[in-house]
UniProtKB/TrEMBL annotation, chain A:
InterPro entries: MetI-like, MetI-like_sf. Residues 1-21 are annotated as: Disordered. Keywords: Cell inner membrane, Cell membrane, Membrane, Transmembrane, Transmembrane helix, Transport. GO terms for biological process: transmembrane transport. This is Putative spermidine/putrescine transport system permease protein. The keyword Transport applies. It comes from Bradyrhizobium stylosanthis.
Length: 286, 355
């Protein structure tokens, strides 16, 4: 290493020795770009294949595609079974989002602020559905409902979805509460806000990004939920993933692809809709 | 209207038995700039938080204008507070921050707008109404916090190290402005700080706290010139503290040094501590003889040029190390390390301390 170049060294030579490690940088950048592109391809390729599959007119999966058509979308939207399943899925996802958000955010507040004994154990218990295979949760709920003889009501399905989406809301809300400056609440009270007023004026607006992020997760996970739903839906009243699965057992045409594309678009609509209505972008970079 | 505060034997004991505040008693007069001064962990912030209502005393009472408010919740105390990190609401604009307290009081929109405008003008922030706190500098945030606290015309203004995060120049300017504002509005102001210069410069009176207790309450001059305890003498400014045995009208502090006690302290026996401020000592070139009890010979060990003054550390013949501060009277009078010098002082400048 020529780090201690003597002052008598000609200036040109000095700059040359400084510049020597320079070219390594562009290579590093190319590598960085290449890895990022590879990750993007890995993440997006299945979606691209689904889209191709949905638009390809042949009744079998075929590559390369032979053309572009909307026949599978027509078939999907014309099917009463699919439309009913889509409506039911949306209904369950909305109800799940509401209950998981209300319960999860309240639980996170109590856990972060309440000085509860065994708070860590409670958090671990609440997050445990994330660790358990969802199929076990579904089976356990199924057996419980059978034992209780409650049948397979919609609220039972929503309860099951709430159970598996609650961890997301608890997690994201706890994260914002962890960084919450309690002096902001003290400042509000000092200025004359009652504890209830303080909650709605200061606490809630400031933890909103975490709660919203959790709500979005809850919606998407519920809308996309298969293992839990499989055990809890009643025949004739099935969610879209279950209907797709049943369809898949007998037919393998582009309708599946069309249904998947509709699901993806719906998920986008929810995220962008939340962004527009409650200003998600001011809190998190999308 | 500004109010007086009475803190009557207040203690705060946390779970686990830590006594954060121990039997603190003091009165803050109406319209007074009152500082709680002490090192971190001395209980000054806990005391302030009990006045604000964020903490409940374990025992004792807090009264405002004679009315017991010990168990009144914070939001009903009608006090303004400026927090250490300002605690501005990040999701609200400057104007909304300042309007918050007025809104909680249910004032109508026109009144709120007028008061917010006046408050922002008072802290010279007109034109920044629509900014968010994150878009302001530290000094501007500080002013917003101040405007937010005074716009509600609080009975008492509480400040928790409000200037701690500002750089020195801005800090001095804000000290001046806060003091002006407090005088103009006749505010009763309780100011928590660990910065003794700040407390001395701004306060009408200071309570020096240590280990949860009040060491001394007094005006800045009393606190500086007549500290009553060893802690106060040591904490406020630089000082020389000597401890020794009374021998007649003198104090024998060992290593051959005898100090003549001030006239008022000549009676008595036993062990005593005294303090002597560095600027109360005169430093002259080594004299032939030294008057016993009020002078000593030594060698300059260290010369610390402070600009307006020079701080010397002098090792006395017996081994005592003494700080001496002299006004900067030109380079001709500057002593350098190794110079032989004679120290002279007036026995009346010795301050007797309680341990």
């Amino acid at each position: 290493m020529q780090t201690t170049a003597s002052p008598s060294l000609p200036a040109a030579q000095q700059t040359a020795s400084v510049r020597a490690p320079g070219p390594a940088r562009p290579y590093g950048r190319y590598l960085y770009l290449a890895i990022n592109i590879a990750i993007l391809v890995f993440l997006l390729a299945p979606i691209a294949i689904v889209v191709v599959f949905a638009l390809n007119p042949t009744p079998f999966i075929q590559f390369p595609p032979v053309g572009v058509s909307l026949r599978w979308f027509e078939k999907f939207f014309a099917s009463r079974d699919f439309m009913h399943a889509l409506g039911f899925s949306l209904e369950v996802a909305v109800l799940t989002t509401l209950s998981a958000t209300a319960l999860g955010a309240s639980a996170a507040l109590a856990l972060a602020r309440g000085n509860l004994p065994g708070a860590r154990l409670i958090v671990a218990t609440m997050l445990s559905p994330l660790m358990l295979p969802a199929i076990l949760t579904g089976l356990a709920l199924f057996q419980t409902y059978v034992l209780l003889d409650v049948g397979r009501p919609t609220w039972g399905l929503v309860a099951g979805h709430t159970l598996v989406t609650l961890p997301y809301v608890v997690r994201t809300t706890l994260a914002v509460l962890h960084n919450f400056d309690l002096r902001l609440e003290e400042a509000a009270q000092n200025l004359g806000a009652s504890p209830v007023r303080t909650f709605f004026e200061v606490t809630l607006p400031l933890i909103k990004p975490g709660v919203l992020a959790g709500a979005i997760f809850a919606f998407i996970v519920s809308f996309d939920q298969f293992p839990v739903s499989l055990f809890l839906v009643s025949p004739g009243n099935e969610t879209l993933p279950v209907t797709l699965f049943n369809y898949l057992k007998f037919d393998l045409d582009g309708t599946i692809g069309a249904a998947s594309v509709v699901s993806i678009v719906l998920a986008f609509v929810v995220v962008i809709g939340l962004d527009r209505t409650v200003g998600l972008r001011s809190y998190v970079k999308l | 209207m500004s109010a007086s505060i009475e803190i009557a034997g207040v203690s705060k004991v946390y779970d686990g038995g830590v006594r954060a505040v121990d039997a603190v008693a003091m009165d803050v007069r109406q319209g007074e700039f009152f500082s709680l001064l002490g090192p971190s962990g001395c209980g000054k912030t806990t005391t302030l938080r009990m006045i604000a209502g964020f903490e409940t005393p374990s025992s004792g009472a807090i009264r405002v204008d004679g009315a017991d408010i010990t168990h009144v919740p914070a939001h009903k105390r009608d006090m303004g507070m400026v927090f250490q990190n300002y605690a501005l609401f990040p999701h609200r604009t400057v104007a909304e921050n300042v309007a918050f307290g007025l809104r909680m009081r249910g004032l109508d929109k026109a009144t709120i707008a007028a008061k917010v405008k006046a408050a922002l003008a008072m802290v010279e922030l007109s034109g920044l109404e629509d900014r968010r706190p994150a878009q302001l500098s530290g000094g501007q945030q500080q002013r917003v916090a101040l405007a937010r606290a005074i716009v509600i015309a609080p009975r008492v203004l509480l400040c928790d190290e409000p200037l701690g995060a500002l750089d020195k120049k801005l800090r001095q300017q804000m000290q001046f402005e806060l003091k002006q504002l407090q005088k103009k509005l006749g505010l009763t102001l309780v100011f928590v700080t660990h910065d003794q210069e700040e407390a001395l410069a701004m306060s009408d009176r200071i309570a020096v706290m240590n280990g949860g207790r009040v060491e001394q309450v007094g005006t800045p001059t009393e606190i500086y010139n007549q500290p009553t305890t060893r802690f106060v003498a040591d904490f406020i400014g630089d000082t020389n503290i000597f401890r020794g045995e009374r021998v007649g009208p003198n104090l024998d502090v060992g290593k051959g040094l005898i100090l003549a006690l001030p006239p008022s302290e000549m009676q008595g026996t036993g062990v005593l501590s005294v303090a002597l401020r560095p600027e109360k000592i005169r430093l002259i070139p080594r004299a032939e003889s030294a008057a016993a009890g009020s002078s000593a010979h030594g060698i300059v060990e260290n010369t610390n040029f402070l600009g307006g003054a020079v701080l010397y550390r002098v090792e006395l013949a017996g081994g005592h190390r003494v700080l001496v501060q002299q006004p900067n009277a030109g380079t001709s009078r500057l002593f350098v390390p190794g110079n032989g010098v004679t120290l002279e002082w007036t026995p009346a400048d010795l301050v007797v301390l309680k341990d």
